[in-house]
């Protein structure tokens, strides 16, 4: 009786579809040992229930798959196989631990409950949660395996082919669904976390085949590290490659913020490499790109920012481009501006008075219908009123020296220079010419 063949279909539970030794057909499970008792009950002619306890070991005939539980039961009438207590499934593709598991043979559905831990041996992904339902891919029933989990399971998600040393994404949601080897959906207060990045949304979809992820329902992406950033929008798309996120794109009401800047636009496209922000593109008609920091503002129909390793070096604005700057926010609050059909701003790295490394504006170049209005201060007299310069031309270049304007140079330009009003002369001393002795 210990070696009786039970005609049932039993498949291991993977996070990704394992190699099916039976080519999608039911396999025969062989009982290898029973530590306690075994008995059968004849329910009706041709139908019986089988029970075994005290620690039961079985394997799927012709494969290396093994199953173990404290006790098992096979209900022939409803074609259900139950495993109770310390359930362990070991397969070449997957390991599964749980306290309870039931396999519904006609539907090729396996349900695991109570402290479920499933590990995909192909990529190392781990799912932990209170329950898991697995629909096996079987010829004539379904061509792609599916898996569901509810009550906020936690997933250590790794992509197939990624190096073992790559840090996984920790995904938590009210419910998750897997289909095939490379598609996943999560719904209900979905969070994704890793040391370099985190996301929050009502729901999420990942498709490794196309390398696309989608966040909807108040989506939010946060970049971590020395230079943090946040991106929100109506919908956020992610570009995925080799376990890394290479693209974060906000579609509709996009808003990106950093430690000293804020960018708004209909669409914001952020490119990443080496887990850091490298470039930003923004465009839109309903909401034109607007970048604002404590000292600078840039607006245009479209905007491109170069930020290698999250350090701002250049901004390019196209279509009714406008930039405004102030020298500081304490002594010199007057606003300088420059505009044109296109605009290029370049920053260099410099240290401020405290020795902190920061991006400092080096030059501004406007092309096509260029206009500029600037304030020129007297460095020798900090209390003097600045002179005012208005320039227009086909091309205007403003160069900076430190934190102040050094030169304003225009091509085919004209303009107006207004010098400060000279100080009033001292009042005349009338006592010397009064005619009195």
């Amino acid at each position: 009786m210990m070696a009786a063949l039970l005609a049932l279909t039993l498949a291991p539970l993977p996070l990704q579809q394992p190699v099916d030794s039976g080519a999608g057909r039911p396999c025969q499970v062989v009982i290898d040992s029973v530590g306690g008792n075994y008995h059968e009950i004849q329910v009706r002619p041709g139908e019986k229930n089988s029970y075994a306890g005290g620690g039961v070991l079985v394997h799927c005939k012709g494969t290396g798959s093994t199953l173990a539980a404290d006790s098992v039961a096979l209900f022939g009438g409803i074609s259900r196989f139950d495993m109770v207590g310390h359930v362990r499934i070991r397969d070449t593709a997957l390991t599964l631990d749980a306290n309870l598991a039931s396999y519904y043979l006609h539907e090729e559905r396996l349900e695991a409950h109570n402290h479920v831990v499933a590990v995909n041996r192909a990529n190392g992904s781990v799912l932990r949660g209170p329950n898991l339902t697995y629909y096996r891919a079987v010829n004539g029933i379904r061509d792609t395996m599916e898996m569901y989990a509810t009550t906020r399971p936690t997933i250590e998600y790794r992509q197939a082919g990624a190096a073992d040393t790559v840090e996984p994404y920790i995904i938590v949601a009210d419910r998750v669904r897997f289909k095939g080897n490379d598609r996943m959906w999560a719904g209900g207060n979905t969070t994704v976390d890793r040391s370099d990045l985190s996301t929050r949304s009502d729901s999420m979809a990942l498709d490794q085949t196309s390398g696309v992820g989608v966040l909807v329902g108040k989506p939010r992406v946060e970049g971590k590290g020395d230079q943090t950033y946040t991106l929100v929008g109506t919908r956020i798309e992610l570009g995925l490659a080799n376990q890394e996120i290479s693209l974060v794109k906000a579609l509709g009401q996009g808003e990106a913020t950093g430690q000293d800047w804020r960018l708004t636009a209909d669409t914001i496209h952020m490119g990443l490499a080496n887990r850091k922000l490298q470039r930003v593109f923004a465009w839109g008609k309903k909401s034109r790109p607007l970048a604002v920091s404590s000292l600078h503002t840039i607006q245009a129909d479209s905007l491109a920012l170069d930020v290698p390793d999250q350090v701002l070096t250049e901004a390019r604005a196209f279509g009714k481009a406008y930039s405004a700057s102030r020298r500081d926010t304490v002594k010199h609050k007057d606003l300088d501006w420059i505009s044109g059909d296109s605009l290029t701003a370049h920053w260099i790295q410099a240290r401020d008075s405290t020795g902190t490394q920061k991006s400092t504006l080096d030059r501004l170049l406007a092309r096509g219908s260029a206009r500029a209005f600037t304030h020129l201060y007297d460095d020798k007299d900090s209390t003097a009123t600045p002179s005012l310069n208005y320039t227009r031309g086909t091309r205007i270049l403003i160069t900076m020296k430190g934190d102040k304007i050094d030169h304003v140079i225009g091509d085919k330009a004209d303009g107006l220079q207004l010098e400060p009003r000279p100080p009033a002369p001292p009042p005349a001393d009338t006592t010397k010419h009064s005619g009195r002795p």
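The longest strand covers residues 357-376. Residues 1-23 have pLDDT under 50 and may be disordered.
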